[in-house]
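Run folding on both entries below.
>entry_1
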Amino acid sequence: MNEATHHHRPARPDVTAVEVHRSTPLAPLPSAPALPTQPGTIAAVTSVVLPDGRVVTGYTIEPAKPEPVAAKPLVSRAAVNVALGGVGFLAMCGGLLLLTSFIAALTAFVTQLITLAAVVFGGWVAVQVFSVSGHRSGTTVNIRKAVIKRSHFRG
């Protein structure tokens, strides 16, 4: 039999013998390159004799460690969300106020430009109408002499 195999005699005569196998780690071959291994050791095989005489064999398992409880934040998420919503609402209101102010200023500016254009154009028209110049182009009508001059034709 193998060295790693053991026979246990049951405590009671009516129970049959159970073989217990222990794990034996293998040594690496000297010529083999070193391969990365996982940290830790191979768990030992443990045998437990139950009160009724049966033998249970298995690997030992470390008890699971509970996850650390996260610290409760000083301010709840709902309060943070409400505060951020309030800040966003105020920013939106301020933006709308600035937008309406900008639109009002732009409207006043365009109105002033239109007024300025009307004044300048009106002044130009007044200068054209009331200025006395000796040379006029276009159509001349002198009713007293009944002379109608159009371009190069004489009647």
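>entry_2
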Amino acid sequence: MRRANVLSGVILAVFGLVMLFAVIPWEIGAGPDGMMSPRLVPSLMMVVVVGLSLLLVINNIRARPDDLRSDRPMPISRGEIAALIKISAVFAIAIGLYLWLTPLAGGAALVFGALWVLGERRPIIYAVMPPALLTAIWFLFYKVLGTGIV
């Protein structure tokens, strides 16, 4: 596990550096004067990826051999993998509904699906949360920011 962590950390760090110094500057324009650059958020995310990757590498290089015994259980359980697959399916369905129907259908499917997959079974939450979230997002985009979602 230690060797795999170091290798994956190095690969992710190289990926982040390539994105930071090659892909982002080539593919995303600088933006107009007086505005934040559109490169800002992607660059910040790649700095975070590189930082966490280096932290993974350093922690696994410095780890004591007894910390990395192979008789420990796997770090990711089957239940967690199943939850990841379920929530990924919810996102895929929501994106499909967003693209092929309306943003409202995609947003509602995302909220309802996430609640269901995460185990929420109280009807009051299903009745209150989706309309409240979708109304808040509508208000933010259309009234506060003055832009459209689509």
